Amino acid sequence: MKILVTNDDGIDAPGINALAEALCEVAEVAVVAPDRERSAVSHALTLHHPLRAIKVGQNRYSVDGTPTDCVNLGIHSLLDFHPDIVVSGINRGANLGDDVTYSGTVAAALEATLMGIPAIAFSLATLADDANYSQAASFAVRLAALVIKNGLPKDTFLNVNFPAKGELLSPLITTQGKRRYEGTIVDKVDPRGRSYYWIGTADLDFHDIEGSDYAAIKRGHISITPLHLDMTNHYSIAHLNSWTF
Amino acid sequence: MKILVTNDDGIDAPGINALAEALCEVAEVAVVAPDRERSAVSHALTLHHPLRAIKVGQNRYSVDGTPTDCVNLGIHSLLDFHPDIVVSGINRGANLGDDVTYSGTVAAALEATLMGIPAIAFSLATLADDANYSQAASFAVRLAALVIKNGLPKDTFLNVNFPAKGELLSPLITTQGKRRYEGTIVDKVDPRGRSYYWIGTADLDFHDIEGSDYAAIKRGHISITPLHLDMTNHYSIAHLNSWTF
Fold first, then answer.
1. CB atoms within 10 A of CB A33
2. Is A189 in CB contact (< 8 Å) with chain B?
3. Which listed residue, of A43, A132, A137, A173, carries a Cα 20 to 30 Å from B15's Cα?
4. pLDDT value at position B47?
5. Domain residue ranges of chain A, discontinuous segments joined by +
6. Which residue has the higher pLDDT, A5 or A245?
7. Out of A48, A185, A190, whose CB is closest to B72?
8. Do A44 and B116 touch (CB under 8 A)?
9. CATH second-level architecture of B2-179+207-232?
């Protein structure tokens, strides 16, 4: 197995190191990851300035760009192999429900899927500094091997979330859940008297929909959601065709 | 009608001005847009530093953030009204097929949808500096009024693309098309002898799939694609449930 590993927490994050180390025991692994935390950068691609890649070890590159940039540079320029799979994570914090659209971790898997390479995004549902990624990493190794063996449905990648604590219960195949949306913007005045705004992250609060990623995590299961590149609401096409423009 | 207008080309782009001016004739309009071009920033949200908003006119704000930031700040902090609809664009260049996942224009509409506000993203399929946005803007006004009147299917927004030139043919309800993916990374050496990488944008090249956004634009029609927040590949769930983990 040849595997490209990336993330959005940055190349020095504990989650990516746990993942890469576990994979190294069964595969040839390259790491191409952002040089710093790039959370919530979504599927952003750096078009307006050049990127730098620093070789920080054997098959290990630190890039001053987004996770999507890293997948691009890895595949097209840096790696001396074509990966069988791209894995992203293990993210510090869950990527559930509508939040997948903000996530750099998920976007890296999406980018690989656009290139026709199987991909999985992994996230651990805790922000704790002393989080233990080893159980999640062990499962990630098994799942990566399974995906390479079985293949994935067309244009589809897996978004995997692990519950924060305790024995991991069996994985469930889930649907993308629904966030309870609450804007939390801090509106303050700086030391020079000018207004500033700071977008907050709300607490993990989702609708408890049966079969959803959130419902699985809440009950201690590993959640595996198949996500598709096609965002078309196919069911609405007939309805919209009845409109008079 | 109360309308929030944003984009990803920046507040001084001709497309947003054409759109806002046309809407002003029939609605109360506020503009909250990035202070510079923020193309390809996708659904990125600025979490790690504060944002500034400069009032540059009546109900007109320039923000040093992403389109998603602009929608957040507009709705939660800056506007003195709750909009009936959020419109984004008119983007300089098409947002077709898989490219919707990179687009800041499309992400702004997605963000509004997460907030439960109807939303439309508009793009003109040309990069020409002398592009004429007036025909597209006229249609945008009609479509915005229609969406407010009819409502949109749940968790769904519209991604609208206009062909570059000529008489606009009737709008078609389309599906998200498929890009021919080709990485184009420029790999060069800077004046100080260090390597740099620059991600290129490939030419507009899509599979000509019947009923797709690209097929509509290519034939001179306005393309209207209903996009859904849920990326779950529901069809693959039964298949994945047959895997042994």
1. 29
2. no
3. A43
4. 85
5. 2-178+207-241
6. A5
7. A185
8. no
9. 3-Layer(aba) Sandwich (3.40)
